[in-house]
Amino acid sequence: MTERKPLGVSFESWIDRQIREATERGEFDDLPGAGKPIPGQGKPHDDMWWIKQKMQAENLSFPLPGTLALRKEAEEARAEALGARTEAEARRIVEEMNDKIRDSYRKPLSGPPVVQPLIDADEVAAEWRALHPVAEKKPAPAPEKRRGRSFLRWFGRR
Fold first, then answer.
1. Segments forming the whole domain that contains residue 94
2. Is residue 22 in some structural domain?
3. Residue 28: CB partners within 8 Å, gap ≥ 6?
4. In what ranges is there compositional bias, type Basic and acidic residues (predicted)?
5. Which residue has the higher pLDDT, 47 or 149?
6. Domain-embedded: residue 93
7. 96 band by pLDDT with thresholds 50, 70 and 90
8. Are 128 and 81 a contacting pair, CB within 8 Å?
9. DSSP class per residue in 128-158
10. Model confidence at 30: pLDDT above 80
11. How many CB atoms are closer than 10 A to CB 90?
């Protein structure tokens, strides 16, 4: 493919010749996606298809307006708090989110006017305790007494 088009040969015939020669060499055999339908075929044309595909591949989402992003973040913080390892960690997550919500009360956010209520830390802690019951600790068994002669007696004989 590094060769230049010879003078006097049309582009179409030159390209067709290169494709034919590459096919004869087997350069198109075993390509990924061979025999599979073309992705997106039959769907209406979307000018932003490549952006959507890249965002899906990178596991990103479209940016939300400030008020809706705060609401989504609050829901995620509540779920994270319920999955925390300790109750103290769950309360810390809730308090950090409540600080962000209080900050949003002071500064106007972009988007539709949505007032995000504070998350009740006691309610989340109660849910956390319900999801993580404390197993009752069994008392440790008493050490068993050794039967027979003591080690010192046995050692003293030798």
1. 66-131
2. no
3. 22
4. 135-145
5. 47
6. yes
7. very high
8. yes
9. HHHHSPPPPPPPPPPPPPPPSS-HHHHHHH-
10. yes
11. 24
Q: Is residue 7 part of a domain?
A: no
Residue 104: other Cβ atoms inside 10 A: 18
In a domain, 79, yes or no: yes
DSSP annotation string for the chain: --SPPPTT--HHHHHHHHHHHHHHHTTTTT-TTTTSPPTTTTSPP-TTHHHHHHHHHTT--PPPPHHHHHHHHHHHHHHHHHT-SSHHHHHHHHHHHHHHHHHHHHS--SSS--PPPPP-HHHHHHHHHHHSPPPPPPPPPPPPPPPSS-HHHHHHH-
Work out the average pLDDT over 123-141: 79
pLDDT at 120 exceeding the cut of 90: yes
CA–CA separation, 124 and 69 (whole Å): 21
The pLDDT mean for the chain works out to 82
- Count how many domains the chain has: 1
Residues 6+ apart with CB under 8 A from 100: 70, 73
Per-residue tokens: 32:
């990924």
- Token pair, residue 40, equals 């997106």
Place of tokens 């109750």: 87
Distance CA 100, CA 105 (A): 9
